[in-house]
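Consider the tokenized backbone below.
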């Protein structure tokens, strides 16, 4: 994998030398510590904890968090750099294992934790000594958060939680879970509260690990809560305000998922370009076929345009601007685009694109979830339409 240079970054004036050095650090780590062994993680179904701890030691698991707890104090552009480079690794399961921890789960604690909660858990998350998950999705409640059924009822000294969660990334090997549950009166569908649960609490079980179409090295689970007592000091944020906490962080989630998709699409096109330039058919290379090179050119152009939207939106986030419409555009656009790119890349690899000897086969499987997870494309387009 080539190393980024300052010349690369000049095309996008948002990036500082610090961002360029960060990209170089991530790319070198992936080349040295991920690519040689990640096939083993695919078979095992999870990313080894020592790899995540190494990322913590490099400062990659809390780049935008408060330095008081070991964070880097960086901006949204740094998070986009991380997500894009993880996407370029070609291992979507590894990428999402990290991003759920850094961008989708632990921000809930960083934004809403009490001083005692932050002191207790934030250094552990930033260092990689503990890995986090966010549990909001249910079997019958995905993009429609208000339809969740898991409930928490007040009890002496805390709350009692009952219900289940589905498709939870880091659900098997995670340590700290940020769980959303209904806490309001009947009919008040947006009255949810967030809680911090630790693995091993009585009544909290990993119901089953899930086998998936893609993202094999990301451990994913169904969670079960049966009369699980949660002490009052593990309530996260304000009672009945959890829905708004979830919505707030979904904006960051959709931005980094877009960046991950752009990294995946870019790397897939690079690998396919190498392939068609050396693969011969009917007396010439595939690159000599006008239809193939023009379609690849179109895909490169589309990815570059989407990348510009992602970068510009991250810069706007760093300026404190409202980007709800833009991140919804990004999630819809990039989730669809990466699948279109993968379709062509598999097609141009021919039979080799369908066997597990090539990165393209794995990447095509991994990409399919990008138009579903974190907000389905159709839901995202409706969010955009509301703001036109």
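A designed sequence for it:
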């Amino acid at each position: 994998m080539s190393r980024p240079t300052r010349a690369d970054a000049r095309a996008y004036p948002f990036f500082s030398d610090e961002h360029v050095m960060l990209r170089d650090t991530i790319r070198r780590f992936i080349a040295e510590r991920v690519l040689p062994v990640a096939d083993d993680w695919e078979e095992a179904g999870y990313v080894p904890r020592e790899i995540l701890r190494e990322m913590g030691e490099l400062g990659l698991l809390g780049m935008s968090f408060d330095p008081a707890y070991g964070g880097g104090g960086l901006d949204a552009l740094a998070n986009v750099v991380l997500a894009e480079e993880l996407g370029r690794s070609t291992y979507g399961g590894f990428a999402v294992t990290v991003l759920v921890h850094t961008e989708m789960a632990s921000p809930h604690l960083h934004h809403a934790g009490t001083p005692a909660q932050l002191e207790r858990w934030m250094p552990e998350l930033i260092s990689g000594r503990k890995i986090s998950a966010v549990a909001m999705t249910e079997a019958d409640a995905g993009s429609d958060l208000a339809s969740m059924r898991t409930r928490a009822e007040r009890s002496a000294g805390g709350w009692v939680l009952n219900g289940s969660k589905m498709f939870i990334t880091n659900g098997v090997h995670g340590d700290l879970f940020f769980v959303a549950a209904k806490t309001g009166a009947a009919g008040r569908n947006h009255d949810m509260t967030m809680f911090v649960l630790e693995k091993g609490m009585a009544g909290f079980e990993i119901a089953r690990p899930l086998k998936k179409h893609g993202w094999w090295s990301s451990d994913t689970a169904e969670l079960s809560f049966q009369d699980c007592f949660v002490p009052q000091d593990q309530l996260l944020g304000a009672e009945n305000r959890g829905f708004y906490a979830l919505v707030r962080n979904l904006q960051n989630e959709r931005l980094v998922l877009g960046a991950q998709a752009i990294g995946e699409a870019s790397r897939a096109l690079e690998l396919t370009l190498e392939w068609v330039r050396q693969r011969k058919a009917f007396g010439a290379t595939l690159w000599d076929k006008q239809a193939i090179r023009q379609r690849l050119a179109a895909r490169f152009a589309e990815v570059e345009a989407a990348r510009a939207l992602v970068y510009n939106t991250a810069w706007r986030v760093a300026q404190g601007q409202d980007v709800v419409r833009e991140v919804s555009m990004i999630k819809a656009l990039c989730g669809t685009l990466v699948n279109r790119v993968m379709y062509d890349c598999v097609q141009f690899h021919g039979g080799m694109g369908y066997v597990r000897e090539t990165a393209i086969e794995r990447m095509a499987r991994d990409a399919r979830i990008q138009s579903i997870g974190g907000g389905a494309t159709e839901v995202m387009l409706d969010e955009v339409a509301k703001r036109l």
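The longest strand covers residues 158-169.
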